[in-house]
Amino acid sequence: MKSKELMRMRKKIDLIDESLMSLLNKRAIIAKAIGKIKLKENLPIQNKEREAELISKTQRFDNSNFISSVFTKIIEESRKIQEKKWKSQ
User: Fold this and answer.
1) How many CB atoms are closer than 10 A to CB 34?
2) Are the C-beta atoms of 68 and 55 separated by less than 8 Å?
3) Quick one: DSSP state of residue 63?
4) CA–CA separation, 39 vs 42, rounded Å?
5) Residues 8-55: pLDDT tens digits?
6) What is the pTM of this model?
7) Phi, then psi, of 43 in degrees rounded to 5
8) Residue 51, Cα to own-chain centre: how many angstroms?
9) Is 78 exposed, middle or buried (0-12, 13-18, 19+ CB in 10 A)?
10) Contact (Cβ atoms closer than 8 angstroms) between residue 28 and residue 81
11) Which CATH number fits domain 4-87: 3.40.50.1360, 3.80.30.20, 1.20.59.10, 3.40.710.10?
């Protein structure tokens, strides 16, 4: 039997996860639009400066290693979305 405290904390996590999923979906839509712009303007998919800038912003948080790891994956997946757009043209 799960404690009330554990169930309460899991409900908090569930709410946060739902928000994260919605925000990540919005981010993916925007990444796809950016991919179209890059294709139109003949720009490379990867922008190492932009990626480093984003990862450096994670350092201000208490759990920076965790956040940095997650954002590294988000960036990688965003690039994949944009690369798909390039390949489909």
Assistant:
1) 17
2) yes
3) T
4) 5
5) 999 999 999 999 999 999 999 999 999 999 999 999 999 999 999 999
6) 0.86
7) -100, 150
8) 11
9) buried
10) yes
11) 1.20.59.10
Total Cβ atoms within 10 A of residue 7: 9
For the record, the structure tokens of 85 come out as: 């757009």
**13-22 CB burial, b ≥16 within 10 A, e <16:** eeeeeeeeee
Contact by Cβ (8 Å): 58, 64: yes
Among 84, 58, 88, 82, which Cα is nearest to 72's?
58
| Phi then psi dihedrals of residue 81, to 5 deg | -60, -45
Distance CA 10, CA 23 (A): 20
What is the crossing angle of helices 64-87 and 4-40, to 10°?
40
